[in-house]
Amino acid sequence: HKKGFRVDGFYLVCRYCNERYPLDQLKKGIASCYPIPLKGKLEGNLYKIEADLLKRAVKFF
């Protein structure tokens, strides 16, 4: 599936199976739809990811 995730409070929630991942524990990896980490920078209210990195990761979306 390629529905992605949404943020709900302090959780990242899978749009397909509704599995919830605590944002502060994402590195542990649980469930089958575990989100793929993308390195970026938090600038104000935005998390910025370089375009080149997104292009290389497009197969996961």
Brief descriptors of the model:
alpha+beta, three-stranded antiparallel beta sheet, two-stranded antiparallel ribbon, 1 helix, 11% helix, globular
Describe the protein in words:
The structure is a single chain. The chain is of the alpha+beta class. It has one domain. It contains 1 helix and 5 strands; from the N terminus they run βββββα. It has a 3-stranded antiparallel β-sheet, with no helix packed on it. The chain has a two-stranded antiparallel ribbon with strand order 4-5. The longest helix is centred in the C-terminal third of the chain and has 7 residues, at 51-57. The radius of gyration is 12 Å and the shape is globular. The model has no long low-confidence stretch (mean pLDDT 82).
Write the layout of secondary structure elements.
Elements: E1 5-8, E2 11-14, E3 20-22, E4 41-43, E5 46-48, H1 51-57
Antiparallel strand pairs: 1-2, 2-3, 4-5
- Number of DSSP strand runs: 5
The tally of helices reads 1
Sketch the major β-sheet. 3 strands, antiparallel
| Residue share in β-strands | 25-35%
Distance between the termini: 9 Å
Helical proportion, percent range: 10-25%
SSE topology string? EEEEEH
Radius of gyration from the alpha-carbon trace, in angstroms: 12 Å
Shape: globular
Q: What's the average pLDDT?
A: 82
> Which consecutive residue ranges, at least 5 long each, have pLDDT under 50?
none
Count of spatially separate domains? 1
Order of strands across the main sheet? 1-2-3
The secondary structure category is alpha+beta
